[in-house]
Structure formats: structure tokens, C-alpha cells
Amino acid sequence: MIAEAGLAALWIAAALSLLQLSFAATSLRGAPLGDAVRPVAVAQGIAAALSFGCLTLLFLQTDLSVLLVAQNSHSAKPWLYKFAGTWGNHEGSMLLWVTVLAIAGGAVAMFERRLAGSTLTATLAAQAAISLGFYAFLLFASNPFERLDPAPSQGMGLNPLLQDPGLAFHPPTLYLGYVGISVAFSFAVGALITRDVGPAFARAMRPWVLGAWTLLTIGITAGSYWAYYELGWGGWWFWDPVENASLMPWLAATALLHSVTVLATRDGLRAWTLMLAVVAFSMSMIGTFLVRSGILTSVHSFAVDPGRGAFILALLGLYIGGALLLFALRVSTVREGTTFDPVSREGALVANNLLLSAILGIVFVGTLYPLGVEAVTGEKLSVGPPYFNTATGPLALLLVLIMGAGALIRWRRDRVAAVTKRMAVPLGLSALTFIALLIFAPGIGILPRLGLTLSTGIGAASLAPLWGRNLRRTPLAIWGMVVAHFGVAVCLGGMGSDSAFTVERLAAVRLGEPVDVGPFTLRLRSVEPIAGPNWTALEGQVEVREGSSRFVLRPQARTFTAPPTDTSEAAIATRAGGQLYAVLGRQNEDGRWQLRLWWKPLVTLIWLGGALVALGGLLALIGRLRRENRRRDYQS
Amino acid sequence: MRSAPIVAVLLLRATPLVAQSDLPPAPYADTQIADPAKEAEAKALMETLRCLVCQGQSIADSDADMAGDMRALVRSRIAAGESADEVRAWLVERYGEWVSYEPPVSPLTWPLWAAPLALVILGLFLARGRFKRRRR
Hints:
A: 636 residues, 4 domains, globular, B: 136 residues, mainly alpha, Helicase, Ruva Protein, domain 3, 6 helices, 0% strand
């Protein structure tokens, strides 16, 4: 019953999106239907949410008469993974995707009051057009509610790597951001249709971009930390195509966030901002295609089915091609707006956009190049960290430098000498860091060296906009910028420190035999079998001494039964100076146990920095919304 | 070149997982080279070699048996005095370019390596119109 209700809700949502599209399109042509578009958009969001709610219920009940549940769930799973398992598979994750899309459209219809009426109608038309295509994809190629008759007595289970609290947070936040960017896309399409681009449009678009970008930041940061502790080798970013698929929309959204500020403040970069909005959501869709089509093999690609890949590719071509065509046709009527002085805040923001776009382009080319080469010549090659680090590293460092200086440059026009003077303390700090690194760590690589050098100075420069301000009267938006920029510097420091100073120790030890890593001495005291709800494990008890203090780490080697898989659960101790990371390996035939140990100084800063960046986005969002409300109260 | 995935599959077939885990782990699979400089060189190399039976992982961070065998091979060759480039070339000859995360510089990859510079130049060209000439 629930499955049929879910399917019905999905059909209703699809029908409502068609209705929304036709109402909006006819009202743009003059029919008096404009008022009906908003309620339909809200109803569509509710219908999609209901459909997703039904699927969640099926997973919570482990209803094995539903094919998707039987293939991806198991009655012995803890309830959190039954719940999160709803989106731990292809169909469920696509349903989540389109649900977020529909809810975002409904939210625009309910809350957006700043946008001109016809532009809002055109925006909702674009939003409906996108969701219609993805409803069709679900209904015709990926029906999550398909029944299975006869129902099996037990389900096949969920990939144990996904059985982690991370599954409850990483996909939903990432999707909220990924798909939230669709609002910016639809705004841009709407504005292109009505030719109404200006500061008011930018101010209306900015909170949506900020919100989506913040969630995207949280999603990526959470995903990175999840990979770090779950995979058991201490890595946090590997330039894997699926990681790049989430990074590309983030880079575009970051550029968009800054260009929309220029548009709102100085009425410049009009066409460029529209283009970035189109690119940002295109990257989200391309990311979805890469991850969901089965072109890439990874823990993220749940089902390999070329037919589905072709369907998503066709949707991609339709939406991206359509938006670019509209852009090409209308861009001549959108004047670019004010031009800028090279040494000015807006000049720095243009440099920011240029560098972010170049990095985005490099990641895009590097991610798709092997696919292209294989398609054309049949040769398989890999593009990985050596390429991405070399190609994007220097640009990213330059970007961070401009980020630090940019916030200290005045709008409209400034003098180089004055900016240099304001940057004196940060530059001095960086110089000191550089010298200290030369003396104490002469052997480290060039990128980590420069990263660490910049992180201290730019960290200080990020805080400098608060200098001389009354902190209690400083607008929240400024706080947001300061916190986010500081977060970038913190994150960079963590990355540099991890690459430069990580100590790795692989050891085969007998019980009680001491092994040193960094400032710690570890002893494996015992290895005991333990059992969880759907796994058994060997748990090592590792006693750690650091000077006079002492603590215990409990790494596990787990064996899951459904599906049968071995995973290692790393034990991580967070200290003030970094993290100690321990993994229990196999037992050798001479009875000694394999231990993999890492001491990673300041590695925690990577995710702390990411969290600060997201917090900055949140503060700016709250600040902007409060200011809008105050302005509206004042006007009425 | 096309044979790379086939080789990987054959290797998988040839060593059933059950039998494999009964074998003693290859020396150097999870044992570091005594000389820290050589270990660092081997580690840097291993981070740029693809584990052929995994889902987008390097051999430096994979639990797969084949990754362990490849780590052992890399460490023993580096310990015996071979350079990282020689070991990489040897592996590429065996498994194809797929195994190396560092794309080769060849006519096939010139566009890839030229892309960063081309993108920056294109960006500068596009940004040029946004600025006004400075009058002094």
C-alpha cells in the first residue's frame, strides 16, 4: 500500500510540475494565470516530499516486497542505517535529488518576495522544467517503488562502507547544496527570459546562493572526514572523479557568490553572473551524471546501467544546452554594466572569479580527459593527484593570497601603496613562517611549504577587516566574510601540515611490544572478538603513552555478513596538536599483529576550517535576510 | 594498452581470495624500508599508483591483496636502488598507463597539460574588458 501511495505521489508531483510549467509559460504570454503558479509549486514540493516519505517508511519497515528494499536493505541493520539506507542506492538517491529540487522550488514560491513578478514566474517555469525531466527519469527508468513477487525472506544488505552515521549527513547536505544551486540556475534563466538583470535581482538571488553554497561546503567537508576515518588509510582527498564531481559545483558556486556581490553592490558583471549560475547547476547535473551513470566505478555508483546513463545524458544536454542557447540569444541585450578600476575590491573579486573558474576548468578537463581519451582511442589512462596538485595548487595559493588582500581593498578605487601598508603585518607573519620552516623543516615539499607560509599571514589578513570596528555593531555579513576567509586559511594550514609533517609507522607487533610514532609510544595489549548488530570484529586494545598521559585506542577489523565484507574501523585520538590514527591489520603467521599508525599534526584544522567556512556562509545568510527584513519594515 | 584491465582480471582470477589470505603477506607489503629517505620515495610513488582491483584508490591506501603485492614490489625495487621513475615505467609497461595516476607527457595528453595555461590566458582575455584604463 505504502509503495503504491509513494508511486502515486510521485506521479502527482510530476503532473503538478507539468501544470506549473504550462501555467507559468502561458502567464508569461499574457494569460491571467500568474497567481496560480505559486500554489502549484508549493503543492509539487509537498507531493515529492510525500513520495520520499513513503520510500523512507518502506526502508524503516524493511518491506522486502519492494525490489529496492530487498536489494539494498536487511532486517538486521540498525535503524539509523535503515533510515539513511533510503538514499544509499541509485533510485532512492535520485528520488532524494528530485525531492530537494521540488522543495527548493516550493520554497522559492513561498518565500521569494523581492523578485519582480514576471521574473519569478519565469524562474518557477524553469524550476518546473528541470524537475519534470527528472520525474520522467525516475518514473520511466528508475522506479524506486517497484514490487518484487514473491518477496524474499531476507534483503541483500547495504554496502558496509556506507553503514556509518556519515551516511545520514553527507548525502542529504550535499544534495541540498547541489540541487539548491538549481534555484540560482532558474533565477538566471528567468532573468534571461524577462531581461531583468540588476542589483535588485542580485540581492534576491544572493541568499539562495549563500544557502546552497553553505550546505555544499558542509557536505564536502563531511564527506572528506568520512572518507578519512572510514577507509582506514588516513587520506582525506584523492581527486577521485566523484570527489571532483562535488568540488566543481562548489567552485562555481563560490565564484557565483562573489560575482553576485559585485552585481548587487556595483551593478557590474551582469552577463558573467548569469553565466556562472548556469555553469554552477550544470556542474551539479554533470556531477550527478558522472556519479549515477556508472561511468565511474566507486562506492558512490550504485548501479551500472547504460540505459540510465543515456537518459541522464539526454536530460543534461537538454537543460545545459537549452540554458546556454538562451544565454547566447539574450546575452547581447544584457549589458555587462559598470567597468572597474584594476586596484579595487571589485577588481580583486574579478581576479577571484578568474582563478576559481580556471581551477574549475582544470578539474573539469582533468576529470573528463580519461573518459574522452578512452572513448576516442580506446586507451585507458589515469589523471590523478600528480596532475591536479601541480595544475591547481599554484592557482589556489594565488587565490588565497588575493582573498586575504581583497577584503582589505576599498570598493571603486584604491592605491597599491595603501593596500601594501594594510597587508604589512600579514606579510611579515608569512615571512616569519617561511623562515621558521626553512630552519626547522628544510625537507618539505614546495606546495605544503607555500601553503603553510600563506596560512598564517592570510589567517591574520582575514581577521583584519574587523580591526578598528565596533565588533558589536559590525554587520553579520562582514562577520560571515571574515569567518569564512579565516576558515580557508585554517583549512590550508591543516592541509599543509598534514602533507608536510605526517609520520607513518607500519609495524608487526607482539602483544605488549612497544612501538613509537611521533611523540607517542603504543603497546597492543590484547585482541578480543566482539559482535555488533550485523557484524563481528576483532578489537585491539592499544595503550598509548604521551609523556605522562595515557589513553587507550580500540581499532577494529570488522566482518559484515550481509553482504560479506571486511572493513577496518580506525581508532582516532584527537589531541591538541593533531590526530593519532590507528588501524588493526592482519595477524601474521608468526603471531604478530599488523598495526598501521599515523601521527598527523594539525590535520584536524582541515575540517575545522571547512566548518568555519560553512559557519561564515550561515552568518552571512542570516545577516542578509535580517537586513532585507529591516529594509522591508522600513519601507512599509 | 587495451590489455590492462584484462591483466587485472586475470590476476584476480588467478589468485582466489580465500587462498590468497592464507598466504603469508609479501615482505614489504606492510613493512617499511629501513632507510627513511627511500621509504619516503617509495611512499610518494605508491600514492600515485592505481590499485587495479579497487574503486579509485591508490595502492598506498588500499586493503586489497593485489595492492599489498604491488606495494611489496615497489618497496623492494626502491630498496634495491631503482629510481621511482624506473619503477613507474616498469609498472606502466606491464599494466598500461591506467596504473599510473600521473598522466604521461605525450601527443595524446598535450591538451591536458596545456589546459591550465590555456584556461588562465582565456580568463585574462575575458576579464580584460571589465577594467577601465587608469588615468593618472
